[in-house]
Amino acid sequence: MHYAVGAPLPPPHGQASPGAAMNWTPHPGQHTPPTPPSAPAAPPPHAQQPVPGQGGPGPAPHGTDITGHVQLPPGAPVPLPSPPTDTTAPDAAHAAVAVLLIGPAGAGKTSVARHWADTRRVPTAHISLDDVREWVRSGFADPQAGWNDHSEAQYRLARRTCGFAARNFLANGISCILDDAVFPDRPVIGLGGWKRHVGPGLLPIVLLPGLEIVLERNARRSGNRRLSDEEVARIHGRMAGWYGSGLPIIDNSQHDVATTVRVLDDVVARSIASPPNW
Q1: Whole-angstrom Cα distance, residue 109 to residue 241?
Q2: Which residues lie closer than 8 Å to 264 by C-beta, 6 or more apart?
């Protein structure tokens, strides 16, 4: 059975609908029987997709899920973006792309990703892994309280959720930038996991300033996102393994956020023209 967009979910099997157990009485002594549920509304005309080669709308392509006028991603992973044919240096400001910004805590990933998304000339979303991970309130497994199976599982779940969100945005013409502390010595659950969740069209870029800068920025943090100096140094040392990996690396030690974003635009353009081998 299909339900209209925005309609409540059907009750669990064997349970009565809430409306069947509650009667509204507008005036004392006046009983109003519950109103039977109405038939699902027909989808709006703009929910249909145009048929190639025809001007009018037609049925949605086979295998494509449509919710209202928002197209949900197909099962296939996101492909690499195609560079424009009229130039050898594609304009990253206009390309629909998915970028994975990698770096240690304190590298400035969140600030750079947010500013990059804010200033692009095409619709762009910022998907923060930490924000999605912290959607879990009751039962949140904080790795700072001890890394265990629960925190590992919640990290993986957050990455899958971010990957689906990225595919959903791209399916609707909205670029996105994700940020995560991906380690080069864990390729299966690091870059390999992101490739499974998003697809080979994802463009990974490393943001790696010097250790002194990372320590200084981390010291300005608060709450559970502030790490000890020892942990920051350990993470930064592991991130140094990205040198020689073939991925583009931006050292933003001497750059403010706006300058780093301009460098990121240039790196994204070059990655579209010549995708890194990962």
Answers
A1: 18
A2: 99, 101, 112, 116, 205, 250
Residue type, 159: R
CB proximity list for 69: less than 8 A, separation 6 or greater: 44, 46, 47
Q: Which residue has the tokens 């005036």?
A: 27
**Which residues on neighbouring strands pair with residue 101, listed in sequence order?**
179, 205
> Is residue 242 within 8 Å of 250, Cβ to Cβ?
no
Cα dihedral 197→202→203→204 (10° resolution): 10
- Enter the pTM of the model: 0.65
Q: Tell me the per-residue pLDDT of 257-276, one tens digit each, with 9 for 90 and over.
A: 999 999 999 999 999 888 87
The pLDDT of residue 115 is: 97
What pLDDT digit, counting tens, does each position of 191-230 carry? Answer: 888 988 898 889 999 999 999 888 888 788 766 667 777 8
Quick one: which of 40, 41, 38, 57 has its CA closest to 49?
57
Helix axes 211-219, 229-239, angle to 10 degrees: 140
Q: Which domains does the chain have, with CATH numbers?
A: 98-273 (3.40.50.300)
CA dist 45 → 50, 58, 63, 73, 251 (Å)? 11, 10, 19, 20, 49
